[in-house]
Amino acid sequence: MKLATLNNGTRDGSLIVVNRNLQWAALVPHIATTLQGVLDEWDSKAPRLEETYRSLNKGEIKGFSLPPARLAAPFPRAYQWLDGSAYLSHVERVRKARGAEMPQSFWTDPLMYQGGSDYFLGPRESIRVMDEAFGVDFEAEVVVITDDVPLGITPAHASSHIKLLTLVNDISLRHLIPAELAKGFGFVQGKPASALAPVVVTPDELGEAWDGAKVHLPLRTYWNGKLFGEPEAGEDMQFDFPQLISHAAKTRSLSAGTLIGSGTVSNVDWRRGYSCIAECRVMEIIARGSAATPFMSYGDRVRIEMEDRHGRSIFGAIEQEVSR
Amino acid sequence: MKLATLNNGTRDGSLIVVNRNLQWAALVPHIATTLQGVLDEWDSKAPRLEETYRSLNKGEIKGFSLPPARLAAPFPRAYQWLDGSAYLSHVERVRKARGAEMPQSFWTDPLMYQGGSDYFLGPRESIRVMDEAFGVDFEAEVVVITDDVPLGITPAHASSHIKLLTLVNDISLRHLIPAELAKGFGFVQGKPASALAPVVVTPDELGEAWDGAKVHLPLRTYWNGKLFGEPEAGEDMQFDFPQLISHAAKTRSLSAGTLIGSGTVSNVDWRRGYSCIAECRVMEIIARGSAATPFMSYGDRVRIEMEDRHGRSIFGAIEQEVSR
Predict the structure, then answer these.
(1) What global pTM score does this model have?
(2) Most buried pick, A126, A213, B61, B166, via CB within 10 A?
């Protein structure tokens, strides 16, 4: 099943069911009006939405043509966004960029931060930045969305709480981050609002690419129309999603509609390219002594997308431009 | 005006208007059913709620007796909780406890972290902890709640966005925090769900104790019935609320219903006592070489309350017990 949110001028938008090939959509006010409302009562709502989804795919119900420009983030706002950093090649490279070593404990203790979730940018919404000199960077990631997760859940029991998946552009202001992280309290200014992909999908939509813990597909990032990276999301992920959920729930329960991010998808094999500029710059420094690739400028565009093994877009594309 | 949320078995509860002396309440479904709904449309909803509040205070409408045991947190869940740490005597002492110096920049650059807001404990809800050995501590703070705050707002313009105030118990697991903060990504496991006071109030309820930037009243914390601290919230607050809001909004707008905390209220003059155990322990170490006061045990109770200059409770009391 694929779900999205239509921008209707309100804060939460209108929930829509979207067909598999992302061409048709149907409003479902008789079932739920918002995606949060679905997560709040997943067991009763999801089967009814699945029914609409099947009918839409078969052409049994007449939907309307999906208007990509009118899509809000699937969650225009959410109660929780916890972002892991499970690809250690990313962690190692980005830390190297700010002159920090990666401690040995990072191999066994997941990195995770509490992100801002009061507003998620829509898939085509501009990245508004007051100053280019902040060092604007994209970070392409996979995200899972949970129902209610009990306190102290083990990784073995966490997978069944993953109800939906999508992609995120976890926008980072690189030049603000070193001073902010040095304070120890995580990101407030260094990470403005993130953008979500057009649709969220249930795990079954991924077929064999989903093993209950990781997504085994490449995540492609394009910068100004040029392929910048296509690392395999299922490789080099040191902590899988059930482990990240278990880490987050060690001392508290997680409420329905919690988004948990993989962290920037990154492979040890740098030839597959990068999901953020910072990694590319570090590899340039290692190879040539200095970084040649600048961060994003006003007018720059980023596109983030994941296709199945047949080349069909799963979540639709995040396509954003940096604006003043 | 004073507002609260009745636990009605749903995730968001039912909004109620509470009279000034916290004895009577009225449901207002014709105006709004949730506190978030009020913040979403403050300008149109607040005047109508104020009218109900006036009538309730005058006895013109018949409310029901406020049932303290049935109150949820005013926001049972919220889209954003950003907690500052504006009292530097707290910061200095707590850092000393984990062997860290306080950098000079902390006098000019506010400390703030993004906290979990997917669930706030009600004012009488137990602090459920899986292991006493986590080092359970309370932190008594003042919180402001904003409407929509534009990106890049200056402190001079931020005060008018403060629509409501309340108190929070920002529960901390002291023994998990040093390793977590060393990673630089802030708190995930070290800060489980916080508890909010029974009611939120508009700034005018504070009278002269509110100067548009700070609350000039003592904040009292009792541990197992004994007064543990009564620091003045208006003293030694290095960054006032408009400055904290401006800091948070440097690179992003803040959505209506954002909670911003003062950090643990603390005075340089230690004779007024403490709003958390960690500070008390550090002062013991300085005075005697070792900490005599333990952290909280199962069955321990904490009470946090602020009274006006006539001894009347403003927000009602947070009263919690630590449970397994």
Answers:
(1) 0.97
(2) B166
